[in-house]
């Protein structure tokens, strides 16, 4: 089996980091943790499990992960978020892969997003493909502050799963919605991407219909409706905040 480096970026992830690293250690020959100056037991737990821990003030999600690639010894890298872990079928798939002769530079996994103790199988939360295993000499992460991804043109999808403990409750979802929409506006404010006054409402409406009707949120009860609504609000505020930056960033108080 080809040797693989595991990569995780962390900040105060003591609740999740043990399960994340233990799953990586089943398929990785080393695990690299880039920690953003945690104040809890994240570093102690990671070190005790044998991970190589490097401290780095947070640079943004994409830049932070690219920074971590420099510490990886092997060309194939398996990157997880701290609140993710490999499911048994993903471990088995990775162990079977012939990475030496692979025609791909990136592999995508299905992600099981868990919320309120259950697997949400509706809305855009499933199958929610994410790129996690890649050849670091051929591809890198985008430099986005949030929702970074491996930039690849030669990727393939696996049917196996990554388990994701995404949000603890609706308060947590709203907090992250606000954070991610702000980061999206910052990532795109310097580009030529222009939005109109209709963009936030249209994107928000489409996101709700896609999640609740097309992707089956209507079948998932109370959580299905709320996830659809919050996804719509996230889309609305991404474009509302970008429009705000484009119109008023130079305005004087």
From TrEMBL:
All copies of domain Glycosyltransferase 2-like, residue ranges: 7-94
Keywords of the record: Transferase
Keyword Manganese attached: no
SUPFAM superfamilies in UniProt: Nucleotide-diphospho-sugar transferases
GO molecular function: transferase activity
Record-stated family: Belongs to the glycosyltransferase 2 family. WaaE/KdtX subfamily.
Name the UniProt record assigns to this protein: Glycosyltransferase family 2 protein
Organism listed in the record: Thiothrix fructosivorans
């Amino acid at each position: 089996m080809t040797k693989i480096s595991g990569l995780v970026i962390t900040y105060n992830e003591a609740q999740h980091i043990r399960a994340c690293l233990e799953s990586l250690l089943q398929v990785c020959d080393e695990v690299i943790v880039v920690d953003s100056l945690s104040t809890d037991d994240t570093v102690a737990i990671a070190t005790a499990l044998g991970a190589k821990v490097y401290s780095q003030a947070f640079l943004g999600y994409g830049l932070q992960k690219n920074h971590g690639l420099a510490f990886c010894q092997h060309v194939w890298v398996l990157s997880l978020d701290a609140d993710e872990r490999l499911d048994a079928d993903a471990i088995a798939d990775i162990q079977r892969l012939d990475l030496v002769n692979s025609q791909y530079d990136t592999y995508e996994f299905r992600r099981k997003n868990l919320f309120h103790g259950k697997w949400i199988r509706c809305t855009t939360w499933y199958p929610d493909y994410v790129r996690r295993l890649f050849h670091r000499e051929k591809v890198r992460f985008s430099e986005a502050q949030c929702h970074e991804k491996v930039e690849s043109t030669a990727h393939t999808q696996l049917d196996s799963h990554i388990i994701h403990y995404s949000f603890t409750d609706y308060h947590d979802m709203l907090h992250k919605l606000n954070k991610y929409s702000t980061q999206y506006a910052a990532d795109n404010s310097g580009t030529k991407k222009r939005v109109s006054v209709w963009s936030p409402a249209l994107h928000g409406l489409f996101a709700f219909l896609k999640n609740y009707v097309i992707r089956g949120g209507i079948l998932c009860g109370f959580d299905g409706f709320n996830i659809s609504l919050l996804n719509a609000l996230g889309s609305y505020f991404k474009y509302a905040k970008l429009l705000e930056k484009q119109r008023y960033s130079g305005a004087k108080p």
